[in-house]
């Protein structure tokens, strides 16, 4: 039984997320998802949707066996608990495969890190773009009032 972990924020789900999770699931037999905590996100705006609500939504996807909230202070904590064989990075996740594998080995964890390098293109296959679009709509509405 090959266990795979996928990670991400998953704020405002879109087909790009489903594409990534489907590809990650194809790398093994079961898919766990670690949903990033809002408190851990520093490289982009904090998610709109609360932590537990994002976990609930990801958990309801048929491609996902189990979604859990991430740790609030150590990204290796869920890895120690879930003990995956593979960690699937998304196409735009900034982690370096070799560095992450080195960090895992120093902690006695033997998961392999694989990148899902393909991405799904669609008009709004990005949470950031969806939010931008909503702001544009609000501004248009205000101008027309
Ligand atoms: C192996 C791995 C484990 C992670 N574990 C956690 C975690 O425990 N808690 C958390 O908040 N985020 C965790 N993350 C998520 C990242 O820290 C980062 O916040 C996340 O990738 C969000 O960025 P993104 O949505 O742009 O991918 C983990 C990421 C990776 C690759
Ligand atoms: N269009 C896409 N195609 C393939 N994978 C994607 C796509 N969008 C996101 N992912 C993957 O889904 C995971 C979670 O992504 P994340 O929650 O950061 O969403 P996002 O739409 O990229 O957000 P943002 O637009 O705010 O950066 C990451 O591994 C990311 O690489």
In CATH terms, what is the architecture? 3-Layer(aba) Sandwich
Order of helices and strands: EHEHEHEHEH
Q: What is the CATH domain class?
A: Alpha Beta
CATH fold field value:
Rossmann fold
Q: Report strand %.
A: 15-25%
First and last CA, distance: 58 Å
User: Largest sheet at a glance?
Assistant: 5 strands, parallel
Computed over alpha carbons, the radius of gyration is 16 Å
Helix count from the secondary structure assignment: 5
How much helicity do the residues have? Answer: 25-40%
Give me the side-by-side strand order of the main sheet: 3-2-1-4-5
**Assigned CATH superfamily:** HUPs
Number of domains: 1
Q: How would you name the oligomeric state of the polypeptide chains in this document? A: single chain
Classification by helices and strands: alpha/beta
Shape: elongated
pLDDT averaged over residues: 96
How many beta-strand segments? 5
